[in-house]
Amino acid sequence: MLESFDAVLLARIQFAFTVSFHFLFPAFTIGLASYLAVLNALWLWTKEHRYLDLFRYWVKIFALAFAMGVVSGIVMSYQFGTNWSVFSDKAGPVIGAPMAYEVLSAFFLEAGFLGVMLFGRDRVGPTLHMIACAAVAGGTCLSAFWILSVNSWMHTPAGFSIDPETGQFLPEDFWQVIFNPSFPYRLMHTVTAAYLTTAFIVGGVGAWHLLRQRHRGDEITPATRTMFSMAMWMAVCVAPVQIYLGDLHGLNTLEHQPAKVMAMEGHYESHEDGAPLYLFGIPNDAEQRLDYAVGIPKLSSLILKHDLNAPLAGLDTIPDEDQPPVFIVFWAFRVMVAIGFAMLGLGAWSLWARWRGRLYDWPALHRAAVVMGPSGLIAVLAGWITTEVGRQPFTVYGHLRTIDSAAPLAAPAVAASLIAFIVIYFAVFGAGTFYIMRLMSRAPSSQEPRLKDATGGPTRAAGITPAPQHARQHPEHVQPGE
């Protein structure tokens, strides 16, 4: 039965599945690492215990999410050498160096200071511990820098030549490779999305505990209030910035990948005197039209060209074999945009509640924040799907097709590994996610335990385990063989 499937399609599904699982964790931990650094700095500056309680509460969740992100990311690199070995051979001379830099600089920075951040507060002093927190936060952003540079190069390749004999991409100017035309926009848009993702998860958790504590008649702890307040400030400040950055990124995409924008807008036909903004429709690739279309006349031209009557080309100008799958791109883009404006709305609502003095006692606002808790994760997945599916049918846009990038593997072999990934991922990462939810279900206390108190300290993998404290003080009590 598996022989009837297309090996390339199965390989694409496998990579999409693993990268989707993986991307959820960095989208959360990039923002959470910076949030922890801010909490630690506020604790050192003000000595208000609520900041230390929040740091100890969220650092446990960060440690688990960071570990799952690392493990899920390792699998993706193996797929470059298995399912996509032809792509690795052809593009490796260009993308190999930036990916190595990500490991040597960003990941080593994160991993090197992670233990100090998690367990070193009472061992290294406040200054070095603060440096470790900042290093981990900076390392997550630096990791995003290198990975997004590679990904952006695949969308807007620059600074390379192609060997006529081997077909390999050869670097000519690494500055152009790294800072390719779409990279600055993609970096700002993605990192800002990560911060918003963290803000809404933190805000959702805070709102959940505000509702529970009010329902039970318990006293609302300062840490819970602070957690919700900081998250809503982040939503107020960052959501409008993200919408603006998204607009800039869209204009850059229109310049360099017009077919992707045509698919996002559902423009099968060219419009000479202003294109409509379609709010709803069912893309019909076979007939090259948008069925049941509901749109606002000329608004798409105003958004993309800043002119109501500006002409916009449609997919009728793109050969059929070069068109991306419109249905997926069209609807993923609308999910992302809808969530973005919902985030803006919730931020404005929280600002109104704060002005009225009801930020902590408006149940409808808190229920909305709980519902919006996972919205950032959904939005980043929708945005990623829009970006990556919109690049099809190319892996290196305009130069290397996806069908020519796959390894010559049989469909049953790819399908077997895909099934194994699905089973293992849902078992392992499902259990990890369940445990994270369990941690979030408990409200931060006024005397939040340290991570090493909650876990018994870091596990020693080698060396001699020190004797118990009482044995070192009274060696005469130690019996032979102990």
TrEMBL record:
Keywords: Cell membrane, Electron transport, Heme, Iron, Membrane, Metal-binding, Transmembrane, Transmembrane helix, Transport. InterPro entries: Cyt-d_ubiquinol_oxidase_su_1. Residues 473-482 have a biased composition (Basic and acidic residues). Pfam families: Cyt_bd_oxida_I. It is a multi-pass membrane protein. Belongs to the cytochrome ubiquinol oxidase subunit 1 family. This is Cytochrome ubiquinol oxidase subunit I.
